[in-house]
Amino acid sequence: MQIRPRRPHGRQLKRLAVALLVLLLSYPGAAIIGALIPSGGSVDAAAPTRQVLLIAGPIHYDFILPLDAETHAAFADLPGAVDLMGVVGAQNLLVGWGARDFYTTVGTYGDVTARATWRGAIGDTSVMRLDVVGAVPPSLDLRSLRMTEAQYARFLSALRASFDGAAPLENPGFTATDLFYPAVGRFNLLTTCNVWVGGMIRAAGLRFGSWTPLPLSVSLSHWLYQSAD
What digits encode the pLDDT tens for the residues 134-150? Predict the structure, then answer.
């Protein structure tokens, strides 16, 4: 006697399809609601003296930090980071977090494989990306975050804690200089790169949306809670 796996009946398939459709349709709405609900924010009477920039891609936000003494000190213990920050012409450090398969795909988003997309949706290990850039042209008009000295120190500490302490991965990056490192946490639809961005901003002590899974969520939260700073 052979054991045959049970196959879902037509009614079960319809229910599954409806559930998936509801999930897909409700996700953007939930992402907007999460951005509207404020979280974080600590009292700091000091005047903001630091500026951190947010740079957006089609689906992803990264931070751009000035390569000053505090930034150097925060990342100097990472293997390869000192050489990276010492690249001639480097004035700013780009920092990001994302799904390993998806984030480390070389080339354009058209090169992303179905496997990377699927793993990013259901869960994948995460990586941090570091790169250096020169002066940021004013024409880019990037979103900015104004921080006090204490907030910037907390922000750097939160960024550094996102690395798991291992050496850079041996895979090519998007540029000739960037490095990918194993990171803390797993990526999935509930914990995306943009959720991480929101978490880092709140960790600094700034007010921001409580759940920001989409670039729209980050943009909306910034407009509501940080654009006036």
Answer: 999 988 889 999 999 99
